[in-house]
Design brief:
Largest sheet: 5 strands, mixed
Number of domains: 3
Strand content: 25-35%
Strand order of the largest sheet: 2-9-8-4-6
Distance between the termini: 156 Å
Structural class: alpha+beta
Shape: rod-shaped
Helix content: 40-55%
Mean pLDDT: 75
Amino acid sequence: MPKNASSDKPFVRLSWLALVLLAVMIGFGLVQASSLTFHQTESTLTISPPSLIMRVGQSASANVTLSGFPLAFGQVCFAVDGFPTSGFVTTFNPECANLGATSQVRSVLTVEATPAAAPQSFTALVVAGSGNWTDSAHVGITVTPAMPTWIPWSILFGFILLLISPFLVERMKRRQRRQHMISHVNHCTGDFRGVMRRPGNRSSYKKSVELPPVNEQLAR
């Protein structure tokens, strides 16, 4: 019997050694699995541009990208939070998308400031979710007053006036030259008539020289 007990000791030692190795391998596998799971749960939600500026009655858009989603395949839906209860209309295109092998989802956020919106600035949240998992990112919203309707018409009128101003200036110059010519002719005509009406000069003519009106001279 003692001989059989001594012969069993190497087998027991090998069994314990195998159990220790198995425990080490299981522990190493758990560590690797936990680190891999932690790496997969990291996700990034980005918005470009991070701030939107619009006038009342207009809209603006931003690209939303979700990368590093924890699941290899799944559906992700987008939503917003932090907007006023009225005055804004928000849409995503697409609102929900299936995550493929690239682990990336893209969507376009469009924000419209209706005429009921007041000029303001605030920060809202863009939320991406799938089941119990969510991720979010901030987006800045700035609304400026609407442009008055008379401003575009004023700009158009100024542009047209700038185009026709050379023609108007040239027309005014021609009118001034014509008036100066008429004044000069009238002055010369008055001097000539004054000379012809003198008694000394009237004897050499049977009657005074009659000159046509100035307008007729210019017409000729």
